[in-house]
Structures are given as C-alpha cells and as structure tokens.
Amino acid sequence: MLLTVATTHQPATDLGFLLHKHPDRVQRFEQSFGTATVFYPEATQERCAVALMLDVDPVRLARSRGKGSPDFSLAQYVNDRPYAASSLLAVAMAQVFSTARSGRCASRQDLADSPIPLEVNIPVLPCRGGPSIAHRLFEPLGWAVEAQPIPLDDAFPEWGSSRYVRLRITGTVRLADTLNQLHVLLPALDESKHYWQGADEVDKLLRSGEAWLPNHPERDLITRRYLGRAGALRRVALARLAELGDDLDEVVEPAQDEEVRQPDDQRLPLNVQRHDAVHQVLLDAGVQSVIDLGCGSGQFLDRLVKTGVFTRVAGSDVSARSVQYAAARVRLEQMSERQAGRVQLFQSALTYEDDRFAGFDAAVLMEVVEHVDPSRLEALERVVWGVARPGLVVVTTPNSECNALYEGLTGMRHPDHRFEWTRSEFADWSERVAAAYGYTVEHRGIGQVDETFGAPTQMGIFTREAGRDD
C-alpha cells in the first residue's frame, strides 16, 4: 500500500518538521501485520513529498486476527491487502505520524497551526459505492477531489471498472487535520475493518473526528461505514456525537440516540433536550443579555441569536477554529450592521480573567466544566462567579451514573472529558461554588429519568443573591 502527501509551501522541506521525520532518512516501523516505511521521494525548497509504504505480511495478519473475524480459509492469505489502501494503512499512518496528528511541533508551531497547500495521492483505494462516495466524503472538508475508477482489466474494457479508485485530493488544510481525516475516511471508503474492533474504537473515531466530523454533512454515513458491522458501537458513536452539542442541526435517528431506554414516543436527542431546557430557563428568568461560555461551533449560540428578546448575545471558546465555525453558523458576515451590533464572538480561555466575560445578565456553560482539568476548576470558578458575576449562571454536565445505560460504553462519554460527576458530586461542587460567591443554586435533570440512575444530564441554575453584586 502506498500513500503520499506533498506540499508546495516554501520552504517545502518544513514538512519534515511537521511530520517529525527527517527528509534525508528512510525509517521503518514494525506493525503487528507488516512493516511501514517512511521516505521522501521529493525534498526541495519548492516541493516536498513524503511517502508511507506499508508492506503487509499475510501470515502475520492472519495470526493477529480476532476470533470473530469473518475471513477464513485462503481468504486470509489471498486478498487485496498488500496493495489496496485500507484500515491497515490508516492504523499504520496514525501510529507513525502520531505527533503530527496531535498538531504539535515545537520548532514550527505556527506552521502546524496554519493551513498549507497539500496534495494527497493514493494509487489504489477500495471505494465501495464508486468515485461519488469519495467526493461526498472529502469535498465538504475543503478538498478538490479526483477519483478515477480503476478498470478490472485494461485488456478487456468491456468488463467495466473495479471497486478501486486512484485518489488525488488537493487543498489548503492543516496537516494535522489532513492526517486525522484520512485516519477515519480510508476505512470508511473501504467500509471494512481488517482488525478486531474493541470498545475503544469509538474513542478513536471521536479523537480523530472531533474537529470536523460533528459538522460533516455525511456524519452518519461515515460513522456507520467506519465502524462496519459493529452495530452497538455505531449507536454509541452517533449518540456521543449528538451529545457534543456542536453537531449538525439535523438529529440522529431515534434508535441511534443515546436515549435508547426511552419509549419510542418520548425519544429526542439529548443535545436538543439540553438546548430546550437551558433556553427555557433563560426565558423564564427574563434576561436580556446572554454569553455562551465554551460555545463550540455555535449551535446553541445560533438559537440565542434568533431569539429576539435577547438584545445582546456573545459567545467565546478556547478554540479559534470553533469561533470561526460559530461565526459561519450564525452568518455573522451576512448580518446587517444593526444585527451584528448585538452579537459578539471571541476566543478566550475560561481559566483566565477577561473583561469581555463581564456585563451580561446570564452566562451558560453547557457541557463545558467536564473538559477542564480538575486542578484548573478553581480558576474557572473565580473567573465566572467571582469576576464576571452574571446574575444567572446555567451549568450542564453529564451524570456519570447514567453511563451504565449506554450500550458498549467504557470509560467516559467523550475522550476529552477530564472527569464526569455523579449527582451527589455535582451537588457538592455547585453548592460549594454558590456559597463561596454569593449565589443560590437549583438542581434539575435533563433527559429521560431512570429510576435508579436519574437523568443523563444534570443542570445547575445559579442565581446571584440580592445585595451581592461585589
């Protein structure tokens, strides 16, 4: 199998810094199913290309297969694995370029954070559904796509095309995003996994897809094809994508939602229920100005903007890209000057004081606190309740007790969660914060209530006590 990534960013040899692989060296990396080799067929100041070649050992691959693998007999040894890009190439790429996928590059961090011109070539790629599938998966991410079908036999054109394509994509994209997209989309195009899938497969999908998959128009298709036959894992993945709150306006099918225990006539995606509940709290409180702290790509922010009674709306997030997505979602550039005057978007971290956080009637922290390291929670508390001091603060966070109801879930609901609280842990934290900063707090549940474990999302409504404006 072969994959090449090239750039014309100058100096082009900076690609070696981003990948943490020197252009003058050939490096080999042993895998459980073969050997991955990294080398540079081109390395000039004008253009640099890196190649990842995976040599699959069919015997080692057969021996490493899980007991439930569908392949048997000669199919384990006679197949297209040695030359057709697949989930095996995605695994090798993820391991060999793991640091590059994280977006870290101490010597060229500004470059690692920037989109650069890239060209990706894969000579032989299984593409079930034909070239149109490649266009549907890559084009929404900003790539120009060339997917040429490979004939079954050049000598017999009447036989038609095989299920393989020759793929070339070009675009101006961050290298880390490119590698993470390939990690997910290569097996999605093949619609097959060639290794045993464990419970951590959903975490792998979310880690690689977090920055782009929730807003991809083919999110459900990608998720189903990436996870192959693992129906339980698909349901968990789709539910957790929906729960992020940064996903598409469209919702997943009820049977794929995380409220799998609800009666059919009551099922509604949890992020929709969460938005409804918080929105109603703000309306009932009669507030006029609201800031969405940790607004992500702006789904709830868009709802705030569309609510006329809120005369001033702001959103902030630690991720600059999320702020860009939020601006696009609310169509900030298309607003009239008067409309845009009531909306403010900015990048900022909740653990540091920022004057822009202050002056609002209400603040919303929807599924935010669990993404903060426990050692930094006190800093967030001081910034929000101690310095910004809105009259109303609404916090939502997962109820970890309900994780027992999630089919196939091990660990926490999202790989970036630093913790998840039980109901008593959340109550203890919120009551301590309220007492420390002069607020009262009311607790509510969001989502279908289980008699044993409670509601899947817990909400704290903090109201500043009269006379405690300092």
Distance between the termini: 65 Å
| Structure classification | alpha/beta
The major sheet is characterized as: 7 strands, antiparallel
Regarding quaternary structure, what we see is single chain
* CATH H-level homologous superfamily name of the largest domain: Vaccinia Virus protein VP39
Number of strands: 14
Query: Shape from CA axes?
Result: elongated
Mean of pLDDT: 83
Furnish the topology, listing elements before pairings.
Elements: E1 2-7, H1 15-19, E2 27-31, E3 34-43, E4 48-56, H2 58-63, H3 87-96, H4 98-102, H5 109-112, E5 116-126, H6 131-138, E6 144-151, E7 161-173, H7 175-190, H8 201-209, H9 219-227, H10 231-243, H11 270-285, E8 289-293, H12 299-305, E9 312-317, H13 320-329, H14 337-340, E10 343-347, E11 362-366, H15 377-388, E12 392-398, H16 423-437, E13 439-446, E14 457-464
Parallel strand pairs: 8-9, 8-11, 9-10, 11-12
Antiparallel strand pairs: 1-4, 1-5, 2-3, 3-4, 5-7, 6-7, 12-14, 13-14
Helix pairs in contact: 3-7, 7-8, 7-9, 8-10, 9-10
